[in-house]
Amino acid sequence: MSSDKPSEINLETQTDTLDSLKECIQHRTDREVICGDSIEWLNGYPDGGLPAGYCGFTSLPDLSEVQNIFQTDTVSYKKWFTDTVALFMRKLSRGSYVVFLQSDIRYMTESGEVTQWIDKSFLCSTAAEREGCTLMWHKLVYTDKANSKRSTGRPSYSHLLCYAKPKLSTDPIDGAHERLLSKTQARKERSRQNRVKPTAEVKENEDTNPDDATTSPSEPEPTQAPTVPRIVQANYRTSLFAVPDIFFRGHMLWPKGIGLDSCFVGIMFLKDVANATGIIDPFAGQGTVLAMANSVGLPSIGVEISPKRCRKANNLEIDLDLISPCMRKIALDIVAARAELAESGVVGGGK
Q1: How far is the CA of 322 from the CAs of 59, 206, 260, in angstroms?
Q2: The CATH classification of domain 18-170+233-343, taken from the options 1.10.1740.10, 3.30.300.30, 3.40.50.150, 3.50.50.60
């Protein structure tokens, strides 16, 4: 019996796949970096108005990075964080996916006493519930390669979260949709689509012939109830994304940046599983996400408020040799699995 469980990766015997990866990925240079306020930029689009086919990948600022705004007001920060995640999801087009890399906050007094733990995965999922988005996967990336240091300050892991914004469809219900809907929902949907609105009633009495009533020339043609758009649940094949649930974040280009392995994993999912045609990062920083998107063949759009970081984000280039051999091998497996599905007549792996 076949199993969906991915095979273990033997790093000792694994050959370097860098050349193979570069052969199947075409580098792009389509990158737009906008210097401005991310919230204002997002609010400049109508709901669902960001470019169709583009997916999101970002990391919202930590409390320490916006200390001048919130000082020690964690309640206001958590509200701002949740509202901003919801805003980004709301502006994405239907059928898009969005990835967040966020580190929790162990909030302490100056004397080192912990007063609360801010779980950013909870805040992201709270925003997703508000916007009708679905959590598709949740990975943990650890920041200590040896994974042995005592954790006293910043948590030694980050959340890598992927959400889907479902499509709306007016197509008649079919078997695939019926499997995703509950039996009750499917039954109601079929009943609604097949319902006939009577425009003339046949008076029943002893002299009425039932056969005449059904063949009366004055009876109008049946009319179908108007179709109401319904949500189509997003999905993806596990064979296309057999990535470890916990892994090292990878090389860091700058202290507050995104680890390259975690960035690479998210971008490859959006490209080869979610079928993204471009990447948007409204908190671009020095451009790790934007450059990684270009390195695997996707155009990118980023927003950054700091002019200095904007210049760096516009010029940053990432060589795939900075990605760990393990993740390069996984990326090749994703490409191969996608090609196999395409040959068998299955288009894409998600959406």
Answers
A1: 20, 88, 7
A2: 3.40.50.150
- For residue 227, what is the DSSP state? P
CA 323 to chain CA centroid, nearest Å: 22
Tens digit of pLDDT for each residue in 255-270? 888 999 999 999 999 9
Taking only the tens place, the pLDDT of each residue in 126-140 is 999 999 999 999 999
Q: 307: which residues sit within 8 A by CB, 6+ positions away?
A: 35
Return all residues near 157 (Cβ < 8 A) that are at least 6 apart: 103, 140, 141, 142, 143, 246
CA distance 119 to 106: 9
Dihedral, CA of residue 278, residue 316, residue 29 and residue 298, to nearest 10? -20
Q: What whole-number distance in Å separates Cα of residue 216 and Cα of residue 203?
A: 13
**The token pair that represents 113 in the structure block:** 């006493």
